[in-house]
């Protein structure tokens, strides 16, 4: 006899902008994953009208709801309350102004191909931002650094700052690289400006030289990257070029800037939904599905 699988139709009631209540209808059936998800989808129109439901303490903006459900799926709360059995298959349907709008069928842990990074980095204290950033960016940066590939490491550093600026300010702001550095990093401790780093970033990433268009036009200093111990001072200028203390920037200034940035999410919880929305578009080693050739 085939084992029965717990199933649940979850209904997200609300209007165009906010979620107001959560409902559910529970089943147990035997069958393949495709058969069971098909069954749930076939019952949506019948089930949502009289399903048991609970009103939320206060309406939640839809974007915030999606982030919350990624971190702590509402189906998990039903499992914890004993309303549905462990490891259910479920169909989540948004009921907008009384009408089914869109549904998403999935099991509790996803399909197992690429783990959801929000769940992978979730701890009892919340999302472990620092561990996520370490794995997605600084593991590769320090791998190159520890093998004395300083220029290649610096290129990845600049690429990471690009990403941090995009996450913080969105895709429409053109100066997000410099803005992120100015807001979170103490660049005065390395004696350079965010615009000077932007020009070095452009020339290194695109041409692997030190001469961006603005440098060639004499509108900003040419930066000369120099690697030495972070605590050892370097001369401010060499042969007319402004010196960038690479180790101090990468090992001291940038990590402190990232810490300050991540703390901003504790002060402003409303930023979290934007983080999820934008970080979902980021490609990383951990979230690439690699197929055998």
Question: Could you explain how this protein is built, in words?
Answer:
The chain is an alpha+beta fold. The protein folds into two domains: 5-113, no CATH class; 120-287, no CATH class. Helices cover 46% and strands 22% of the residues. The chain has helices at residues 33-42, 44-50, 62-71, 74-80, 117-120, 129-146, 150-169, 176-184, 194-207, 213-216, 246-267, 271-279; strands at residues 5-14, 18-29, 53-61, 89-96, 99-107, 122-123, 126-127, 223-226, 237-238, 241-245. The strands form three sheets. It has a five-stranded mixed β-sheet. A three-stranded mixed β-sheet has the order 8-10-9. The protein has a two-stranded antiparallel sheet with strand order 6-7. Strand 4 and strand 5 (99-107) form a beta hairpin. Mean pLDDT is 86; it is low at 107-114 and 289-293.
The structural domain count equals 2
What is the helix/strand order?
EEHHEHHEEHEEHHHHHEEEHH
The strand line-up of the biggest sheet is 3-2-1-4-5
Number of distinct beta strands: 10
Distance between the termini: 39 Å
How many helices does DSSP assign?
12
Mean pLDDT: 86
Approximately what portion of the residues adopt beta-strand conformation? 15-25%
Helix content: 40-55%
**Computed structural class:** alpha+beta
Give the helices and strands, then pairings.
Elements: E1 5-14, E2 18-29, H1 33-42, H2 44-50, E3 53-61, H3 62-71, H4 74-80, E4 89-96, E5 99-107, H5 117-120, E6 122-123, E7 126-127, H6 129-146, H7 150-169, H8 176-184, H9 194-207, H10 213-216, E8 223-226, E9 237-238, E10 241-245, H11 246-267, H12 271-279
Parallel strand pairs: 1-4, 8-10
Antiparallel strand pairs: 1-2, 2-3, 4-5, 6-7, 9-10
